[in-house]
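Database export, one record per block. Field names are fixed; values are copied verbatim from the stored entry.
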Amino acid sequence: MDLQKPARAQDAAPGVTELRASDADRDRVADILREALAEGRLTADEHAERVDGVLNAKTVGELDVFIRDLPAAHQQPSAPAYIPVPPRPAPGAIPPEADANVVAVFSSAVRRGRWRAGRRLHAYSVFGSVEIDLSEAIFEYQQVVIKAVSVFGDVQIRVPENVSLRGTGGGVLGNFEVDTLDSVESDAPVVYVEGLSVLGNIEARAKRGKRVADILDRVQSKVDRKLDRVQDKVDRKLRKHLGR
């Protein structure tokens, strides 16, 4: 007699559609919806309604519902979903002199808001706290280097979620942590973090919901051009109807 019990259905591995959705999955679907809006496949109301559903979706299957009627959801990618970038810029690509310094000694220093990010920024924290927020910054250069030194201090770096982020460094009885990002935009900015933490902390990660405005402007310009073409077509038909 075979005493082995058959595997129960609930013990089987879940299907792909039943897997929990990640932030990357939601970003992928949101990008497809954004392109569909720019191409005129979705109205502004439809786009807003679907994006709201994407943000609340829990599984991969729930996400697929919002794009199953769009061509981009059924296309096989012909290239990697990201643009690989090296762990550090090429020698000589970034000048060694800093465009700006952010220093906190027994104090705190913050750089945030709408500001112009140069090619190199140095941050020093000695028994202090430094915050560098690039989520609303204007990137005048594609490559930005942030050199961070923390001695009994804390350095927090935040970047938009649609840039590439790389980090090289370490800590001596301290913490150095950089959450690597890979942008799908070939011309997206690349932020390199070089750091040393001595009995301190250095962290760099994306700020969810924040994207480089310059990249989003390209999508908005597509929508504007589409609306302009539609308006021109309507005007021509109206003039023809009025015999002008």
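Remark 1: Helices lie at 23-39, 44-56, 60-64, 213-241.
Remark 2: Residues 100 and 207 are 22 Å apart (CA to CA).
End of record.
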